[in-house]
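Narrative summary of target 7.
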Amino acid sequence: MKYLSLSLFGAILMLSSIKTFAQLPVKPLAPQEQLLKSDNPTLERNKKLVYDMWREFLEGGHLEVAEKYFDENYMQHNPNAAIGRKAVVDFFAKFTKPQPIANNIKSSVVAIIAEGDLVMLSFVREMPDPVDKSKKYTTTWFDLFRIENGKIAEHWDCAEKMKPN
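Modeled conformation, tokenized:
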């Protein structure tokens, strides 16, 4: 009987939590300067390479620095972008213009993780609530980069294919 009561209590708790489940908001784990640190100098250098590319090239719109950051044969796994350094420049040239480069990434960075030749940035992403359009919720966006010979050689993210204009 004791086990039946515990099982029944567990089932009631589980079912009641479905209705009252509330997502925790996504927040940065630490200030960006701390996220860049590593005990391994190679991993720290790789993190900084990706971080600086994000600030200067992506957010700053300084496409002229592409050679500094991207391998000529840069491999792209985003279904909306082509392969190669020239292709990444051409892609961002359509909607980017140079602006002052910030000291930190403007987007809210959750984590910067490096392992081997890979660096992952994760970001807070705010989205409209599909049930109540007057509300928003946070989720997480991921970008993963592979470093080769001091340059970004490959990229993955969770982008979905978009309709062409």
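Residues 15-20 have pLDDT under 50 and may be disordered.
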